[in-house]
Amino acid sequence: MSTSESSDQEKKGLLQNDEKKIVLEGGTSSSEEENNLSLEPQSMIIKQDEDEEEEEELPGPKFKLVIRNITIRQHTVKSPKIRFTFGGNFKVVDSRHKGGKIEEIGEKGKQFTTSNCEVDTGGSGGVFKNTFIKYKRFNNYEDLEDQELTVELITAGCCKIATQGSAKINLLELANSHIQREVQTEIHQKGKHKITGKVSFHCYLQEVWNFNLHFYQFEGINLLGNQNDQEPDPQIKLKIKSAFLNIFRRDKNWTNRDCKSEPELNTKNPRWEEIGNITYRGIFSELENEDLLCEVFNHNTLKSSTKMGESLIEMRGFLDYGLLEGPLVLTKSSNVKNESTGSKEKQISKTEGGTIKGLVEVEELPPHQQYGDIIILKPGRTYIGVHLIRGVNLRSADPNGFSDPFVIVEFGGFKQRTKVIYRSLDPIWEETLYFSIKVGLLTEQNIGKKGNIKVMVFDDDEAGDDFLGSCEIELKDIVTSPQGKAGKGPNECQTRVLNERYSLYYNGEETEQKVDLKAWFVPDVPSSFKFENIQKKQTKTKLKKSFAKRETAWRQGIPEKNLEEGDYEIKGADEDYCERFIPTFMFKMDLPRDLRDRKVIARTVKCFTYENDEITFGGRRDVWCSPNFFLSLMKGSQEEHAALHVSMLLGVDIDAYLCQGKTKNGEEHYWVMIRENNGTITFVECSTGKEYHLENKWKGIPEIEIDPKDKKKNKKNKQKKINLIESSDDELETKKTKKKKKEDKKKQSKKIELESSGDEKDDEKKKEGEEDEEDEEPEPEPIKDELILPYMTIEIIANHENLWGNINETMDPAEILYDLENKKSWHPFVDPDEGFSKEVKPFYEACRLGPRSSEGRAKGFAIRIRKEVIAGYTNFRHGKNLKTAFLKKFTPVIESGLDYYEKKAVGNLDEEDEKNYKIWRGKITELCPQGYIFDAFTINFTYVDPTRIRNWIMEKYDFHKEEDINTVFACGAYVQPYFGRVSSVWVMLCVMRVKPKTEGEKEEENKKDEKKDKKEKKSKKKDKTSKTKKPKSKGNQLSTPLLNDETSSEDDELGKN
């Protein structure tokens, strides 16, 4: 196809788009378009094809692409248009240098083009009021990795369309990244790349999915009673009040759009353990913009049930928090006589009827998920808008002298974040975040309970974000601001607008860092609202006087000897330099339903990065971060990990405590204690997840009283049960002894050398000869290993309600009892009989763990890490003129078995896992070329930063310095995501060296050469080449072609990277 023909066809297609697929404001459109996520009142909609909407039964994942809010800045083109190409594997191949020709290969993706700029101020910026909606079905998820979204800056003349620059985004990256995108269009001219503009847009690329929502553990608080003030029988009904008319399938398979509970009898504070399921079909961003209609009825079997109230709860953030909460409002209408006219008029009154809250979980999520979203403002709701303009003079947090800043805004317990601006100390965000004000009645008091708006600036870091500073927006400053315009596009409104430059505070002190922002209510609140009683967050405050006074009296009850050995600290300073009582850093955290295993909880806590306070807070020590702040940073020191661990265990009704004492080397340390029901004390070391069990260290929880009629039977059963337990203990110990012997035998055999390195080295290697030999018969009585604790002293124990000081004669944690009720051993800070316990409460909004990363996102991290390690090895060896060969066929085999190490770290291995591990290990050894020595090691990381992981590996191990050109490598990575957006990363690096020949092999080879020489002399052949040619060894024969084949295939992969 000639260039002129293609340009004419492109122009023709462009005109067809303009004529047929753009629906102007006031035009006709389908019902789906009118209610679609992407519709804006003043926008132009590019319609999807009808056959794509009905394409339901075809195989393969179906994705929906929505592009909206398109802007351009710093462009050098007059009257530009933007053309998007979605998917396809089309490319032009020029093989003329090989005697071929220019060929067009593959299939073109779907194209759509904007209209001209509505507002074009030249290079300073332009706005396109178009919204594009496209559906595409892929054969499989792997197609996302091979296809792209192309963004082209074009100009359309009278005769042709000219491309003035382009940029490409991989679809796999797009489906797992932030919804807000900005690309830099470039054009190649005269051997140089010229930047022609920066295009920003919101892009949804999400799979159309059947979301099965499970609602459970709902409770009503202070519900309205009956007319006679009798206790009601409340029943709850849930229904998604859809804003999108085309979300459910049209057949009869999807009919569960609502669910209801069984009635709870005679209570104003009901609790419904199970409500039911609702199925929703659509993309995730559409689901988050829906509302859940919650209605509570007073159940009556004889008469119709009467409504006690209803609440319209936003689904936004349900995946992040898992918690739905809203105020109930009872609306009544009555006919009131108008005295002036004499006619009856309808009057509506609203009454607050308590609060409803509960948990929701999605049984299965799409494997690829984007993050970030754009709130669609709905009529009848009041919002707070915060527009982040820019940061000024921000602190450098990276070694390159820059930061990668983004902003988290928090209001009413909910958080939203902006996009990241990379390598900048003066970032421009120009991003608006909206928070819905979730109150029953819009009153000054109800809004004031939400508190002020907190703005926090961070440096993006995959190993845990770095805190740059924070500020606070007071609501009273918003309502005293002048009138002005706020918002953009369909959200533009006239209201009072706060436009201010705020200084950021760091370590409780004002810095030179600034943030420009705007804030407003939409629609505006009544002018009578002043918000003067909202207390501003303070910095650098001392412990409350009531706590300080009590501390003085409490310390008098600690023996002098104990005070000499320990500090007995009862307070900690938070990130704002405010002193807090240690128990207030803990609370009963609501956990997701499938996070109940205490081993998994311990592993989740361990995956939060450990970092000293001196690094996090610029030299400041002993900082106790609030749980909300710690979960935002995703890194902290030992006290934050221990407090989070206790909060999570308390959330699943485990009797857990935070312990403070000293380790064997005399350093201050924090760990977790669990009081088991059977009287055992379990210490959990947060940094390793290892448990230490001390039997009979407290009285335990007494057994439930038994009915007198069954006492005789239960006594017999109890005696039998004790005998069985005792015998089973002996049998278990014997089995353990046999198992140890089998493991010793296996250790002596040749196997893969797997090392565990870094921050998480496993203490699994044992000295030879410690176990009994196989010939010896087992002892009749089991011999238990002596428990050695890593802790030397214990000073205080605390939970979310109280703190106890150790007043025993000894401070050795292995030598004391843990009956905290015994005041002769443990000195309580708060006496339960006093009213002071009400003072012990969190100073922050109760938070929840964030969601797990999606399967696709975790896989993307693993691919990036593997490629970074390979690139690091390749670049180093290339600089030393050393050949690098990574065997690509090893990668899928390695990565298929790395989950074994994660299960082992958690402690959830079973016989099937051990069996699969042996099979996996055998597959790896089979792949190793003959004549090679195989060496491998696995390393565990708690961060997903590819560069940091690569640097750590190359500093710790010097396998990349192997000078033998026949040395080959293999690499694999596995990422296991956990709640809280943390992950456990396993990297396995394999090194295969040519096996050196033994003396016997060398002699045998020499003998063969001598025999050959004799045969050649006898035959009297004078061909010199045949006389001097020596046969290659078996190892070289196999390794040489293997190196050539695998090197080329891996080079292709590196080239793509």
Automatic annotation (TrEMBL):
<dbReference type="InterPro" id="IPR056288">
    <property type="entry name" value="CEP76_C"/>
</dbReference>
<feature type="compositionally biased region" description="Basic residues">
    <location>
        <begin position="1014"/>
        <end position="1033"/>
    </location>
</feature>
<feature type="region of interest" description="Disordered">
    <location>
        <begin position="998"/>
        <end position="1057"/>
    </location>
</feature>
<dbReference type="InterPro" id="IPR052299">
    <property type="entry name" value="CEP76"/>
</dbReference>
<feature type="domain" description="C2">
    <location>
        <begin position="361"/>
        <end position="489"/>
    </location>
</feature>
<dbReference type="InterPro" id="IPR056290">
    <property type="entry name" value="CEPT76/DRC7_peptidase-like_dom"/>
</dbReference>
<dbReference type="Pfam" id="PF24656">
    <property type="entry name" value="CEPT76_peptidase"/>
</dbReference>
<feature type="compositionally biased region" description="Acidic residues">
    <location>
        <begin position="770"/>
        <end position="780"/>
    </location>
</feature>
<dbReference type="InterPro" id="IPR035892">
    <property type="entry name" value="C2_domain_sf"/>
</dbReference>
<dbReference type="Pfam" id="PF24652">
    <property type="entry name" value="CEP76_C"/>
</dbReference>
<feature type="region of interest" description="Disordered">
    <location>
        <begin position="1"/>
        <end position="60"/>
    </location>
</feature>
<feature type="compositionally biased region" description="Basic residues">
    <location>
        <begin position="736"/>
        <end position="749"/>
    </location>
</feature>
<protein>
    <submittedName>
        <fullName>Centrosomal protein of 76 kDa</fullName>
    </submittedName>
</protein>
<feature type="compositionally biased region" description="Acidic residues">
    <location>
        <begin position="49"/>
        <end position="58"/>
    </location>
</feature>
<dbReference type="Pfam" id="PF00168">
    <property type="entry name" value="C2"/>
</dbReference>
<dbReference type="InterPro" id="IPR000008">
    <property type="entry name" value="C2_dom"/>
</dbReference>
<feature type="domain" description="C2">
    <location>
        <begin position="195"/>
        <end position="328"/>
    </location>
</feature>
<feature type="region of interest" description="Disordered">
    <location>
        <begin position="730"/>
        <end position="785"/>
    </location>
</feature>
<feature type="compositionally biased region" description="Polar residues">
    <location>
        <begin position="1037"/>
        <end position="1046"/>
    </location>
</feature>
<feature type="compositionally biased region" description="Basic and acidic residues">
    <location>
        <begin position="998"/>
        <end position="1013"/>
    </location>
</feature>
<feature type="compositionally biased region" description="Acidic residues">
    <location>
        <begin position="1047"/>
        <end position="1057"/>
    </location>
</feature>
<feature type="compositionally biased region" description="Basic and acidic residues">
    <location>
        <begin position="8"/>
        <end position="23"/>
    </location>
</feature>
